[in-house]
Amino acid sequence: MMQIIIEFAYTGSLSVTVNNVQELLLAADQFNVMDIVRACCDFLGEQLSPENCIGIWQFTFCSCFELQSKAYQFILDHFEEVVSSVEFQGLTVRELTDILERDNLNARKESTVCEAILHWIAHRPEERRGHLLVLLSKVRLALMSQDHLWTTVMSSELVKSNAECFQMVKEILETKDRLTSPALVMRDSVARPRLPNAILLAIGGWRRGDPTNGIEAYDIRADLWINLTNSQERPRAYHSTAFLDGYVYCVGGFDGVEHFSSVHRLDLSTHTWQEVAPMHFRRCYLCITVLNGCIYAMGGYNGHVRLRTAECYRPDTNQWTIIPPMHEHRSDASCTTINNKIYICGGFDGIECLETCEYYSPETNQWTVIAPMNSQRSGVAIVAYADRIFAVGGFDGSARLRSAEAYDPRTNTWYEVPSMLTARSHFGIEVIDKLLFVVGGFNGFSTLRKVEYYNVVTDEWSAACHMEISRSALSCCVVHGLPNMAEYTWCREARPLL
After folding, report:
1. pLDDT confidence of residue 377
2. Residue 218 and residue 210: Cα distance in Å, rounded?
3. Distance separating alpha carbons of residues 267 and 257, to the nearest angstrom
4. 139 dihedral zone (left: phi>0; alpha: psi -120 to 50; beta)
């Protein structure tokens, strides 16, 4: 290790490997060679996985505070995978307690947290069973269903043999139905939902004959929407949004008078808008997606004709570049990315609603036609989900649709999947927490507040909390990894109301 340090002092070159990083980090820290410390920390940060994150967190020290924080956040974000690792069994009761009580522990189901405790105790039952009460008190037990509380918790031999634990769970079972309002839920430590690690944003749209600048954030853990409307941004509809590197980009659209080529981006850490380079073409009814750190914009309507042009934006150069045009003129289409390709489906060519689909490959810089959908769909929404592409809703030329279908890229075939609860076109679609959400839209008579989601595991659609603002022609995106994520969620007990 000393030889490596001395060679680095003379040459400025360094080779950090899996085999030497731990010893090298210790030696560099001992001699205060901070360039090597940073190199080792960067290397370990890139190697984080559910299998090693606890070890890296426990191994790092004060000079590696940034890595230690990153490893700890990785544990919280990937808790469901971490509990299956060998390192999880080595946590001390204090470390496990600290993890379990965090609001930002990412657990889709609280039963996962409860099962993790029982799993940890079962590893050394005689030594650890005495910690059951303090650990179980950190579980949001009131979030679990009564059936799950009975079958998973009350039936556990560990709980039944501990009178205090049994009584605590029994009291929660008897009182959980009284927690009827969000205000009561958020103040109760056993009922307060944990913070999500991703937020669904619904931006802009068309409401009561006019565009809106309304922004709402969906807190999936609380199943509640928060109004975050920012007066700095002008109203727009029939636009498209994307999340990239901590910014939400709002691209194109229409305000009732002007068709936009402009692009505005929202800095989610400061809540401020900034205008960046405009597109080469005015586009409303367009669709955009992100691939390899770039934003791609396709099709749309410029106020005169439907477009088949497409272009690519690089944030590092703040420039748009024209890419080859699509095979079809398309407005009101939808797009997504999967397998390093951009797929676009459906839309309107100025004469008829389309069922045609194609994809763009940045590697070959060309568009390729694929199998058409089973239905014509204008105002459709598509999204990559569960290794497939789902096309949902839209307008077929005569009616708004409830139907949905999925495309398998391996076989180049479409097949039917269960229909939505509500027919709609021009709505938002996103995947969050392994669920496919559809938001707002137009049902042929009025704009919608309704939100629902599809679970590919159960193959069912379910209703979610309605938005506050009824609207169509909105755009949705999912944001994550924000240092101020709590500002975009429903107020928990520890912080004031927005």
Report:
1. 98
2. 23
3. 27
4. beta
Question: 21-30 and 2-11 helices cross at what angle (nearest 10)?
Answer: 70
Q: 2-187 is classed in which CATH architecture?
A: Alpha Horseshoe (1.25)
User: Per-residue pLDDT averaged across 439-449, rounded?
Assistant: 97
The beta strands (E) that lie in 26-109 are given as none
The CATH architecture assigned to 200-488 reads: 6 Propeller (2.120)
pLDDT of residue 287: 96
Q: Are strands 240-244 and 247-251 parallel, antiparallel or unpaired?
A: antiparallel
**Domain parsing of the chain, residue ranges:** 2-187, 200-488
The model's pLDDT over 115-146, given as tens digits with 9 standing for 90+, comes to: 999 999 999 999 999 999 999 999 998 888 88
First-residue to last-residue Cα distance in the chain:
52
Report yes or no: 196 and 236 within 8 Å, Cβ to Cβ. no
Q: What token pair was written down for 425?
A: 């076109």
pLDDT digits (tens, 9 = 90+) for 132-188: 999 999 999 888 888 888 888 888 888 888 999 989 888 888 776 665 556 555 556
Name 250's Cβ contacts closer than 8 Å, sequence gap at least 6: 203, 204, 233, 236, 239, 241, 263, 264, 265, 266, 475
